[in-house]
Amino acid sequence: MNNPLKKQYDVVIVGGGPAGLAAALGARKSGAENILIIEREVEAGGILNQCIHSGFGLHYFKEELTGPEYAERFVAHALSENITMLTDSYVIDISPALQVAVLSGRHGYLNVQARAVVLAMGCRERTRGAIRTPGFRPAGVMTAGLAQKMVNMKGVLPGRKIAILGSGDIGLIMARRLALEGCEVVSVYEIFPYSNGLTRNVVQCLDDFDIPLQLSATVAFIHGRDRVNRLTIAPVDAQRLPDLNKSWDVDCDTLLFSIGLIPENELSTKLRLHMDPATGGPQVNSTLETSLPGVFACGNVLHVHDIVDFVSEESLRAGQFAADLALGRRRPGDNIALQKGANIASCVPHSLSPDREQVIYLRVKQPMKNCILSIGDRYQKKFRMLIPAEMIRLTLAPEVLDRYFGDNLKIEVRPQEVE
Amino acid sequence: MKEIKNMTCIGCPMSCPLQLTIVDGEIEEITGYSCKKGEEYARQEYTAPRRMVSTTVACSGGLWPRVPVKTAESIPKETVLAVVRELHRYKVKAPVQVGQIILENVAGTGVAVVATRSLPGSKSEGQETI
Ligand SMILES: Cc1cc2nc3c(=O)[nH]c(=O)nc-3n(C[C@H](O)[C@H](O)[C@H](O)COP(=O)(O)OP(=O)(O)OC[C@H]3O[C@@H](n4cnc5c(N)ncnc54)[C@H](O)[C@@H]3O)c2cc1C
Ligand code: SF4
Questions:
Q1: Which of A102, A154, A163, A367 gets the highest tally of CB atoms within 10 A of its CB?
Q2: What is the CATH number of domain A127-259?
Q3: Are strands A84-86 and A65-66 parallel, antiparallel or unpaired?
């Protein structure tokens, strides 16, 4: 059935990826009547629509799905809950009074009023400009995710002879994908002395296809006037500076960048939300509400997740809290600030409340074996191995914070004392 | 004949380096694992490695020109390229339903290939939208 567009909604969700879809379901679960998802693409599902490999859903659905399968389950669920989806529509502005301005393919310019807004815009890839790779500006230089969309959704190959800079999972997965499509993948270059991807992907995406992984090396120059035809590759020193005296040249017609993701927060900065430089996303309290009351954030726009199952879990909660606020259910504010201590790169949320179970996501700065994670004197957990590439999820039972009278807690990871 | 084969366990972030001692093609010893999963992985990967394959198939009349597909189960690693090559020659017509069998017994593996998304016709409406 087609829902006519209303002027006012309990919860308006910006972005129809896994985060937005789960937020909508969470809002429905909490009793919100009118829920609107606004998505700029022609269909919901977000980045998952182009991630055709399997490896999604092991936590959430307890089975291994491909990206499109995972997305389709959520889209179907949202439709069965009669959630309104406005696709082909771009949110261009949100006012502090929660007026959402939209440019829509079908409706032109329009405004909707929200009682609560959930930001679920996802993230985008860092490009060549982010690391200022020297050289010409020819065709054939693009991000790995763009190549993924071209190959998997449009059936267009980005080139024939491919080099990849960055050994994160997206780069590794694209190396395999292009090798399967009959391209020659010359090499994957990584500036760090270790791969940033899962071992499973190094083994199954590179080793299986005899694609070399060149560690401690980077692209020092891009050659070619109309189209890339050659790269200068240089080894890097301990400061990660290229040593041009030891450089060599490699022929290729395409260079893919897989050098990290950044939360897509133009709307958030326009709204002057307090941002966290460590995550690139807004600061949020334990209900995932940002510094502007009524505006919530979840998924990759809040902090870059590596598995979508966690995105769904987090976003369900964000949607529930957004609906609670929209329906006028008040809860006590947070009274404990969460501070980063030793070996913590980032953590979300930024404050805690003792009135219910708390979920904390964090990343470490340095890989560490046999370590103890502690939150003040309230909580301790041993880990065999923690690495920056793997986000850690903790849940704290309400008793953990019960009768804690301080106003902050420090979270840290330290080596286990050897007895 | 004795040979040493090195592998990295993919079971968890520990990424244990595994070493297999092979005598006349048979595994004599496996070392380097920190838990049983590592030993099992090394054995499986040496004797009969298997992989899931996902790729796309050309599709006419749909919202997109390709429909993503996967093997319903893992297939022997050495058949991966043959499977992808057979799927390259294949074409389907929209609409396609998620889970629909696209091809039975792909490349003689006995395994079916299934669609991993629904693809409505380009003229019909994709999702319920307004
Ligand atoms: C290339 C790539 C490969 C990945 N591979 C894996 C993997 O193998 N396994 C795994 O578990 N996870 C993987 N992930 C991570 C996982 O897919 C993400 O964590 C998840 O998709 C994040 O969901 P999201 O909804 O926050 O963001 P997205 O999926 O990016 O969705 C955000 C949506 O918001 C829309 N949007 C943004 N701005 C606006 C606006 N102003 N107005 C309207 N709409 C807007 C976008 O169009 C998009 O549809 C991968 C991620 C990427 C980028
Ligand atoms: S052997 Fe066990 S501990 Fe080591 S990487 Fe494999 S699963 Fe992890």
A1: A163
A2: 3.50.50.60
A3: unpaired
Total structural domains within chain B: 2
> Can you give the pLDDT at residue A155?
95
Q: What is the pLDDT of residues B114-130, one digit of tens each?
A: 999 999 887 555 555 55
Q: What is the pLDDT of residue A3?
A: 63
Measured between alpha carbons, how far is A235 from A365 in angstroms, rounded to an integer? 24
Tens digits of per-residue pLDDT, A293-350? Answer: 999 999 999 999 988 999 999 999 999 999 999 999 988 899 999 999 999 999 999 9
pLDDT at B1 (0 to 100): 82
Half-sphere exposure of A183 (CA within 13 A, CB side): 26
CA–centroid distance, residue A344 to ligand 2 (Å): 24
Domain range summary for chain A, segments of one domain joined by +: 8-124+262-326, 127-259, 336-415
Amino acid identity, position B13: P
Do the beta carbons of residue A396 and residue A379 sit within 8 Å? yes
Say if B97 falls within a structural domain: yes
The percent helix, strand, coil of chain A (3-state, each to 5) is 25, 35, 40
Give residue B10 CA to ligand 2 midpoint distance, Å: 7
Stretches where chain B sits below pLDDT 70 are 123-130
Ligand 2, residue B12: give the atom nearest the CA.
Answer: 8
The structure's pTM equals 0.93
Query: In chain A, which residues have pLDDT < 70?
Result: 1-3, 418-419
pLDDT reported for residue A405: 86
> In the beta sheet, which residues pair with residue A346?
A363
Domain containing B120: what range?
54-125
Q: Look up the CATH architecture of domain A8-124+262-326.
A: 3-Layer(bba) Sandwich (3.50)
The verdict on B64 and B115 lying in the same domain is yes
Ligand nearest to the CA of A100: 1
CA A134 from centre of chain: 28
What integer pLDDT is reported at residue A2 of this predicted model? 52
DSSP string, B2-52: EEEEEEE--SSTT--EEEEEEETTEEEEEE--SSHHHHHHHHHHHH--EE-
Q: Is A152 helix (H, G, I), strand (E, B) or coil?
A: helix
Residue B130 lies in a domain: no
Q: Give chain B positions within 8 Å (CB) of A198.
A: 10, 13
Q: Which two tokens stand for residue B41?
A: 């992985």
Q: Are residues B79 and B95 in the same domain?
A: yes
Q: Looking at residue A286, what is its pLDDT?
A: 97
In a domain, B14, yes or no: yes
Other residues' Cβ atoms within 10 Å of the Cβ of residue A77: 15
Residues B85 and B106 in one domain: yes
